[in-house]
């Protein structure tokens, strides 16, 4: 029985701890809670001034989760999931941030979190089997383990457009939005990008601004969310049945309990297919992609869903020229993260909204007054960059990580990320990643994947203590086999056909490797559990029991 040391506090000044955790989003918070329960000491470093990670930074108008509230929440505490009330079916950013703060207070987490502090380096000390972690405030801490709870979309990316710095008006990035409300009343606003953040924010900005000019490079598929108020009946249906539903969600491909229609799109005739897509469109959200079981696998099946959404866009958008520009044609539906919206396509029927296709008229530069394209110069008051992130690896590679025998993470990953199970990388001992590349991460309900990784890591650290092991490192052959498997599974699907951030394609010069693991949350969990049960097969463990016992 692990000892309950949740009251244990080491404060924010300890220079030696068992575990350094980088990031106080949902991963770092739950990890801290679990480590304390084991009686381990931990310090969490967080660049922001508060908890919440993604939901701390992405405060843009309309920011909302595309996994429904009853499922996008922690499952580890029955009391927590019973007592918390979500006001809407799909939660808005302020509600998720309020939840993160509630959890931090309820489990008294903040006393071990050092805010406003970014980890800049981590150097492995081979003799002592410890890490020395450095921060931008000049502090150094020594720890046996480091866990990167750094998030998958935490390095926002400004585009390399000439003259960007010369713009005289206000500029914003959706991923680093100000904490106070931004007033767009009466202003002319350029929005660059049409990914999920833009699709969520454009309808809200358009209601307030004088004019909105959207600069689109690639149209995206978006499905109406059908968000609404949480009804007591719906909430109760979940709360009464939470244990069973959570357990079932863990076995699903995406970690979301969802209505999968387990047949091929080609098994239905055109009329039945249309009826099915219509029902899914009415249902709303990402469940659209589960209308059939082969939409991510079979191009002919996928084409039927594409045709349906194209038809919907043409139906909603009144100006046929604008509608044509909005049709995504260069990637199968779902191979870029599908967007979920409230009134996105409808917004283009507003008088004050214009769409500029930058394939037709490329952006040449940003001037002090606005955005100059090959066709026209648009004078604007504000520019909103909804241009995304250096996903999955960006934040990790900013940290100067030096592992065994001088191996640096940057060198190790110069051709793209290489991991064993998305949890560790060879050459860098005792450093775990939560939802790292090579794990289901961004293709899944992040809460489910975070809890799975935290549970696995905590169990591993505990096992190491019990077995007198001081170091764990991924085996190179096991890692190579896993990387090959991740690729092989990805290339069985349509995903690699899109220039997506899953592939690193949105960052010029970034190696193009399919980063998340498509094999599904359920199968992946089984694999991780088997590895642990086999005494951490595919990992090298070192350290003598006698030494550990003496140290304790
Ligand atoms: P995304 O999905 O990466 O979207 C970024 C958008 O910005 C996308 O439309 C890009 O076009 C566009 N972009 C990027 N660089 C440029 C330049 N230089 N010029 C014009 N347009 C550009 O990021 P989001 O923040 O919307 O969403 C990220 C995830 O958060 C989302 O998938 C959900 O999981 C939640 P492109 O497609 O690259 O042609």
Characteristics:
552 residues, alpha/beta, FAD/NAD(P)-binding domain, 2 domains, eight-stranded mixed sheet, five-stranded parallel sheet, 17 helices, 20 strands, disordered N terminus, disordered C terminus, binds ligand NA7
- Over the alpha carbons, how many angstroms does the gyration radius reach? 24 Å
Global mean pLDDT: 95
Proportion in helices: 25-40%
Structural class: alpha/beta
Count of individual beta strands: 20
CATH top level label of the largest domain: Alpha Beta
Q: Helix segment count?
A: 17
Question: What small ligands are held by the chains?
Answer: ligand NA7
The second-level CATH architecture of the largest domain is 3-Layer(bba) Sandwich
Q: Biggest β-sheet, characterized?
A: 8 strands, mixed
Question: End-to-end span in angstroms?
Answer: 18 Å
